[in-house]
């Protein structure tokens, strides 16, 4: 089968011909239809989980995906052949990822039944970004009418967070780099867009909202920028970063809430997202469709933060 894999940590991802995985006890083989690209994919290439989980090489990369159950192993009770599934296919050993024509995955992994109203390419764009956005918005504990600034709003997580916050009546301030991005953010529910090419975001927000805002989701800033932006918050406000640059002592000392955010993945969280999607309330921010052969170049783009919306790999 075709798969995108690396021979060693920090190696260049390549399309390889590798053996189709065999079914195992408690696991299922999924014929992959699509996979979603995330920044975590290149972090895995760099060895972010080295020492925490067992790895095998060639290491097939990829976490998010969607496909059809082709075979179930002994003891599997939740799924059967022909089921349409989606979720995070990461498991131990690392190296049996979603960027492949077939994946073997434990039944207990963070996978579940795909949304009925989503095509496979759309379903593959949901898991990591969708769960992260959903939990970020929940952790902020904001109320209808509150002001939420989203740094990095045009990416996958940001695009979901804009919508999920707007559905709760939260007024979203979305950062953009051009008119097309502003238009897309407005269509997803943002109240205000701020172009960071015009002037520093901090200055623009301070001018628009001198009395402060209630929350910040920061998906891109470095430590100094995140720290400065805390001064935009009203007393008791909340700020979270997904790039682990927060000084949580500083946040507490300023009477604020938040800090470094890590997604808690689960089939239940995926089921909740599937329900929202099937209700028609959530637009899946699928921006770019590529093939397995395009993945190495797409990973380079992701490393440099050039993604807009979600990039999905079409597999079958």
TrEMBL record:
Keywords: NADP, Oxidoreductase. Residues 11-313 form the Enoyl reductase (ER) domain. This is NADPH:quinone reductase. Pfam families: ADH_N, ADH_zinc_N. It comes from the Bacteria. GO terms for molecular function: NADPH binding; oxidoreductase activity, acting on NAD(P)H.
